[in-house]
Amino acid sequence: MSGYSLWSKPWIPVQPLEGLATKVSLHQALTQAHTFRGVLDPSPLITVALHRLLLALIYRTHPLRRFSDWQAVWEAGVLDTTAITSYGEQMAHRFDLLHPTHPFYQVGFMEEARVHPMAALVETSKDNSPALFDHGRVEGSFELDLDRAACYLLAHQLFAVPGGRSKPFYRSDAPLTAGMVVEVVGGTLFETLMLNAMTVDQWGDLVPTDGTDRPSWEEECSPEPVKEGTPPLGILDYLTWQSRRIHLVVDEQRRVVTGCQIAQRYCLPKDGSRYDPGKAYYLSKGKGFKPRRLQRDRAAWRLTHVLLQTSEHKQSQPQVVAWLAALRRRERRFDKPTLPKSVSLTVSGLTTDPTKAAKIELWRREEIGLPLALLENKQLIDHVSRFMKTAGLVEHHLRRTGEALIWAMTQRAHQAEAIQYIWTGKTGSSKMPPTVGSVARSLGITLAYWAAMEAPFRRMLWRLPEEDPAAVTASWHEALQDNAKAAVTAALTRLKVGGSPWEPLSLVEDAFGRRLTRVLEKGREEAGNDDSDED
Predict the structure, then answer these.
(1) What is the DSSP pairing of strand 36-39 with strand 244-251?
(2) Domain ranges of the chain
(3) Least enclosed by CB within 10 Å: which of 52, 240, 369, 415?
(4) What are the C-alpha distances in Å from 396 to residues 159, 298, 365, 424, 479?
(5) Which residues contact 351 (CB under 8 A, 6 or more apart)?
């Protein structure tokens, strides 16, 4: 069978600065990166996987050992075409998706492994909607053209879920399955790649020291997988991590992928190390650092303050955000403005059922516009953190109000205790019925509140570097108050229309309003305290 070179064949979906979306080869994606807005794929996981592959090639062809190396490339505005082309000529055979002995990101045919339908590669999740890679929706059949198969192959190596029997041991999660992944996005693909291409000295434990680090396609003799985990050799090894032994089964005449073999390969050590620069971590008692996960019912923008906060002993921001802040500080110190005034932080990842890790719920990619001036001012970042703490206090009050509302309506004899619960959070001598919480959640009060707060939050990020923080704080608290009241009013109105008794509704509404005033006063007091240690 003739080969299929990912180095020269068009397969990466991109959006040019001018013109319609198109597909390009690896060589074109790198040498013409400054002419594209970015990678354009319906799946955020494929987008992340393509970025990781392109970053690995940049590290392989560009010496980014220190800031001066990075600055030279950034100021040139283009990647080194000569170095990229030369590397591609040397390694062209290793980018062949159909190579007879070294197929790209795969292994040879495994005699002992069964052939799965393509749904196994694209992680179809029949029990959930939307699915991670619902092949029926995304592709239209259970066969894949070679270009799309390459995209899903990359994503599977980074986002494969754990669970299921395999050899040499049960399947473990891939590097990016657990935890959200943060990327910096600039105005072009070149800017995006370079803003994420931290210098080698910023990678901490992944800085190679013995010269053995290499991308997966350069392997000559692969080590055997180890159940306890295989430490990455360095940056290149990690960026091209092979979590599965995969072989694509191709119909030679039609040149389509009809099936695949998948088995466990390498897993990372479960030692609490912080390998990934795009992840935010928190310290878990007795387990080291663990990545913060996306949540099904919690938009990623609500963790912006965590992403911006500088590293502390119990948590750490994504290293790529710290790198971006360092670039901004260096630029200001030497008065050489070359960075864009603003970027976007994209937060991508998947969520799994907390009771069954192999059951995928959904994938998500959110974008958070960020003025770089915010990163250089710790006081402004502290303001963002305090703003979100106050928003959290309001959410807690809304949740308690919803529970009190259902309690007062279903047990009129305990109406007074329900109203008191709004103020104290204590149920007194009587226990709240166990079904109250789930019924209260069905009212959608907190969901409506957070949905309404997204736009004010995004405006707040842009206003903080330009306006008096006191004025921004006042505007934020006004938005909290208005949207919290609107969420409760909407729920009460629905209940009144449905024929619910007016007395408990009115009492709850009054207690909610008075307690909300106290909650916001507490938030204002903390916002005025510059010594707050809020994290």
Answers:
(1) unpaired
(2) 12-374, 379-527
(3) 369
(4) 33, 14, 26, 12, 16
(5) 293, 294, 295, 296, 360, 361, 362, 363, 364
Contacts (Cβ under 8 Å, ≥6 apart) of 454? 299, 301
Cβ neighbours of residue 199 under 8 Å, at least 6 residues apart? 64, 65, 66, 67, 69, 70
Maximum separation of any 2 CA atoms in the chain, in Å: 81
CA dihedral 365, 367, 368, 373 (to 10 degrees): 120
Q: How far apart are CA 54 and CA 259, in angstroms?
A: 26
Mean pLDDT of 212-237: 90
Contacts of 510 (CB under 8 A, 6+ apart): none
pLDDT of residue 138: 39
Say if CB 236 and CB 213 are below 8 A apart.
yes
Residues of the chain with pLDDT > 90, as a percent, come to: 64
Pairing mode, if any, of strands 288-291 and 181-185? unpaired
Contact criterion met (CB below 8 Å) for 345 and 307: yes
The residues that bridge with 290 in the sheet, in sequence order, are: 282
Q: Are strands 12-16 and 256-264 parallel, antiparallel or unpaired?
A: unpaired
Confidence at residue 354, expressed as pLDDT on a 0 to 100 scale: 62
Burial of 357 (0-12, 13-18, 19+ CB in 10 A): middle
Return the CATH class of domain 379-527: mainly alpha
Is residue 432 a contact partner of residue 342, using CB atoms and an 8 Å limit? no
CB 263 within 8 A of CB 113: yes
First and final C-alpha spacing in the chain: 58
Whether 1 shows a pLDDT value over 90: the answer reads no
